[in-house]
Specification:
The strands form two sheets. The chain has a five-stranded parallel sheet with strand order 2-3-4-1-5, with helices on both faces. It has helices at residues 12-22, 41-53, 58-61, 73-84, 104-116, 136-140, 149-152, 156-165, 172-182, 186-196, 202-207, 214-223, 230-238, 247-254, 259-268, 287-300, 303-319, 323-335; strands spanning 2-5, 29-33, 91-96, 121-127, 145-148, 245-246, 273-275, 282-285. The radius of gyration is 23 Å and the shape is globular. The chain is of the alpha/beta class.
Length: 369
């Protein structure tokens, strides 16, 4: 099994389609895309059966199935296992956007199919967050390949290649700034390339590129922030005054509890929240996502309330031995501006915050045999 788990816009679907095409697996790969309305286990399992039957090998083994009131997902799984037990040639079952499957029963039925499938049936799942499929057993057996956000993150050289393909030429300093702002995020780079193409001053645009740029903010609002519950959205927006946040600070700025748990869940869900330490106690937001959150905060929060948020942050940092951050937020509370070096427009990182550089890991995880 191969699992891709990464945020929206990381290039998961593009990677899978490219792999299938370049490896010549079009006739041996059963492709299923899950949609947000897929809550019916029967319909989901039938779509798997149909996709498998559309492959060259599966067309000879998998029986046609029709939805009926007395046909449940467990029966479909048993029939698939029976039909595929004599599978002699490799077939790949590729399920894209598996995070959209909102049925625990369907996930349990999929888990059964995974655990009992013949060895020639290979699985490739793409999701925005880790799946609750008992994959730890496959991991222990060495049968699981995991591709995560760091593996899909563009390198500086790959970012230049993407811009070159779009006909955009940038000097090295401007490219480095754009790469730092996007943190190698595929969709961010692609949106930047689209905006830069034909721009009268590409270098100026690139150096000021931020999450407030229309195409980026629309994407992040629709695919990330807009999908969060009201409580989570409020936490994200109010804590965007910070360059780094923990559970205690989140509770302080929201007047609620459970901030640490929410931050850990967001990080686990690849919702552009990144842990800064191994204990997952401190977090920061992706630079472009932070820009969007800060813009939302400025649009929805009165100036005196913004000052109170900075004041509360200043007091907390001062009490816990972080004098530089305490002073910065105290100054922001007094002047009614953002802390120096942390503009809500440019999103520039504050000089007093330790932010680890993006990691890039190259991997080749899709065998053809």
């Amino acid at each position: 099994m191969t699992v891709l788990s990464a945020p929206a816009g990381s290039g998961k679907t593009v990677l899978l389609r490219s792999w299938i095409a370049e490896a010549g697996l079009a006739e041996r790969a059963a492709w299923v895309s899950v949609h947000g309305e897929d809550r019916d286990p029967q319909r989901f399992l039938l779509s798997l059966a149909d996709a498998l039957r559309d492959t060259v090998t599966g067309s000879k083994l998998v029986r046609p199935l029709t939805a009926t009131p007395d046909l449940d997902g467990w029966a479909i799984v048993e029939w698939l296992l029976h039909d595929l037990h004599s599978l002699s040639d490799p077939v790949w079952l590729v399920i894209d956007d598996l995070h959209e499957l909102h049925s625990d029963r369907a996930l349990r039925q999929l888990e059964l199919l995974v655990m009992r499938a013949p060895v020639q049936l290979r699985f490739v799942f793409a999701s925005r967050h880790d799946l609750q499929l008992g994959l730890h057993r496959l991991r222990l057996d060495g049968e699981l390949t995991e591709i995560r956000a760091a593996d899909l993150r563009f390198t500086l050289g790959e970012s230049r290649d993407l811009l070159d393909a779009a006909g955009v030429q940038l000097p090295d300093p401007a490219l480095a700034l754009l790469y730092e702002r996007t943190e190698g995020w595929a969709a961010g780079l692609r949106l930047a390339a689209l905006s830069l193409a034909g721009h009268p001053d590409p270098e100026l645009f690139a150096t000021g590129f931020s999450g407030s740029e229309r195409t980026v903010s629309e994407y992040l609002l629709a695919e990330v922030l807009g999908r969060q519950p009201k409580q989570v959205r409020r936490l994200l927006v109010r804590t965007s005054v910070l360059e780094r946040v923990n559970g205690e600070l989140a509770d302080l700025l929201t007047g609620s509890s459970g901030g640490g748990r929410i931050l850990r869940e967001l990080e686990q869900a690849n919702a552009f929240v990144v842990a800064l330490d191994a204990q997952r106690s401190w977090f920061h937001y992706h630079a472009l996502f932070a820009d969007l959150l800060q813009l939302e905060l400025l649009d929805t929060t009165a100036q005196d309330e913004l000052a109170r948020l900075h004041g509360a942050a200043a007091a907390w940092f001062g009490e816990h031995g972080f004098p530089v951050e305490a002073v910065r937020h105290a100054q922001a509370a007094q002047t009614g501006t953002w802390p120096a070096g942390c503009s809500p427009i440019t999103g520039s990182a504050s000089p007093w915050t330790e932010r680890p550089p993006p990691r890039t890991i190259c991997c080749a995880a899709f065998p053809t045999t």
